[in-house]
Amino acid sequence: MDQILEVLSLFLSVENILMIALGVVIGVVIGAIPGLTATMAVALALPFTFGMEPVTAILLLVGIYKGGMYGGSITAILIRTPGSPASASTLLDGYPMAQKGEAKKALSMALYASCIADFISNLSLIFLAGFLAQLALSFGPPEYFWLICFSLTIIISVSGDSVMKGLVAAALGVILALVGMDPVYGTERLTFDNFNLMDRINFIPLLIGLFAIPEILEFYLSRAREHIQTAVAGADMTWQELKRSMRTIIRGSFIGVIIGAIPGTGATAASFISYSEARRNSPNRENFGKGEIEGVAAAESGNNAVAGATMIPLLSLGIPGDVITAIILGAFMIHGLTPGPILFQENMNLIYALFCGIMLSSVVLFGTGKLAIRYFSRIADVPKQILFPIVLMFCIYGAYAVNNSTFDIAVMLVFGLVGFIFNRTGFAAAPFLIGFILGPMLEDNFRRSLLISNHSFDVFVRSPIDWFFIALTLLSLGFALHRYIQSLRNN
Amino acid sequence: MKPLMKMLMAAGAAVFLPLMGTSAQAADWPAKNVTLVVPYAAGGTTDILSRRVADLLGTELGVTVIVENRPGAGTTVATAQLARVSKRDADYRVLMSSPGHTVGASLYPLSYDPVKDFRFIQNVIDIPNVLVVPAKSKYQTFEEFVAAAKTEATSYSSPGIGSSIHMSGELFKSKIGAPNMTHVPFRGSGEALPALLAGDVDFSFENLPTVYPMIKSGQLRVLAVTTNEPSPFLPEVPTVKAAGVAHGLGDFATSAWFGLIGSASMSDEAYGKLQVAVNNVMQSQAFNDFLPQLGAIAGKESGDAFKAMVERDINQWAALVEATGLGE
After folding, report:
1. B68: which chain A residues are within 8 Å (Cβ-Cβ)?
2. How far, in Å, CA of A222 to CA of A388, rounded?
3. For residue B12, with 0-12 CB atoms within 10 Å meaning exposed, 13-18 middle and 19 or more buried, which class applies?
4. pTM for this entry
5. Residues of B with CB below 8 A from A340's CB?
6. What domains does chain B contain, in order, with CATH numbers?
7. Which residues, numbered 241 to 280 in chain A, qualify as contacts with chain B under a Cβ-Cβ cut-off of 8 Å?
8. Residue range A458-486: mean pLDDT, rounded
């Protein structure tokens, strides 16, 4: 009883609740602006937390993290510009929905899926932290390697009409991801002696270019075409639709939780895996990529479930799973706290107070999202000739702001052109993106595995986790092959 | 006055007044806000401590110290930018330099001279590296470990190529002569630590603050610290330098340092005043309360001593990179 009172006294303060709300609002707004990521917002907010109570400080940062994760979906749906990398998969169906005049429906689904996933993720953090932390530690380089092999099979799901074109796009993504310094030997690869390419091609300008710029180019090249969307007037999501997507949301949440608990894989991969699994299991498979509401549900549940789960390795092991949790780790240390098993022993009340706040943040996220939909969906009503110049300006600023680098603006424009050519030639941008993100992870973990095993290939089958993902990969490929043969027969 | 005359005078004023401003600026420096460039992305250790230092330095100087993140190519992008800074801005732009400056000198093609193009103000913070092994490792002491590492195949993790952690490992390897020691690079400590905790790699020279919680909880065992003196946080742990004399490690000292540098064209006025201000910051209670939270200690080297340290490091890493064939 005393402990409960102490936890409540730590948690129940005006500042805490205010900071959670403030954090979520900041996160949603920053997340919605292309190029401004939750990572930047958390980093910039950090100095303001120096003077706060530890619980208040961490809750502010967690609020921004969660808000940002959701906020990215808003612009992805409305203007095909993912506000954050993790919402790239949201636009696959979200934007076609908006084009059909269903922006409000898509935004609502994104919000419900995000909040439900967030809630499941929080529960996992509270009840399964110990188990998931142990699981995370059993993931060494070979296990990552197979996880990524399995993840690569999602290229089949997001290739659009032609798997062959999808594979070509993915290969192109892999090649471009090789640019930079070799991770083991430090030699330059495909840098053409350009200084700016030595640190690899920056991901965010590439992302903005690939998705937002082609849309703007298309608009100016075919102004006569009908581009009208009526978002606010559009219908809201029905309960029936939410019920139909529930399985997808829960599946996506668990995928997000597991990926989130393993350091270094990230929300982008989680959302794509969730999307791919949803498509595979859906009766409306053919409708994915053309405005299927379940696609939005899958993507958003996948990426939002990561946020709570990345706190698992952070709190229980002291290991930050991504850049944002690395900053939150910094915030803990600034306040003289060291996350890890010791924190659980010495500051259990603080952990419980944090859990209370994290749970509350899900509720606040829901409220903020509802408001955001009301105001942001008006963007869809702005005439395109006014909206697109503004979007372009944000894109340029966003690309620049990541590293304060003008070279990145050029990167964005080049990939804008690439995206445009993809659009015109029927290549999908999503496989390209997946190749670009997962290609280097595959290479890194393949080489690391061989380094730790002294070049023995036995390391790739050293644990049941390896076999599990090998089986999943084979199943996934077998399933795709089966469908392909079936479609041949039907034709 | 004729309109033409008025215009000419105005034009003259427009041309000359700013110049007068510049000469006046040097006398009462700082006349405007100072920018502190952080050569890493927002959010890392360097960023966190730079923001704290910027805050305190701003109070000391009476102007705002703006933090600007300019990551890229292991700090060399930001450093190249500082080397090229115009004379007008030279007094108002400083960089939080780090081992990236000295390692980068041999890993990246530089457009600047890493010593001559800069003025070295003050080494502000030293973060020691520690030699850690997983709890289940068979190595109990530094002595046991070194003896085994010379003959057995061992591997160590680092958060990336060219990091102070990687270079510590390479230096250690070359000094004790361990042909079977393998470097396993990760991308960031967040990815490297699970491999270390799980025993996929045998050891690492991690930054002390990163692994301190794991040392405290018993998940990692610390065998030695890499600084010249034992760490106040781990007083009972020997230094590599002291414990490794017999193995040719008598001059082994590495740490992640963070120090302020300006461009070579920085005026004496600004340089001197900055040095005083930074020293005042380093004496302050706020700074000394903040250091232990990062597991850090105050840097010692100032001015020429700082420059000499950078020069020594550049030579040390250059020789090592040459010997190991890194980047070829």
Report:
1. 404
2. 14
3. exposed
4. 0.86
5. 213-214, 216-217, 219
6. 28-126+256-324 (3.40.190.150), 127-247 (3.40.190.10)
7. 263-264
8. 92
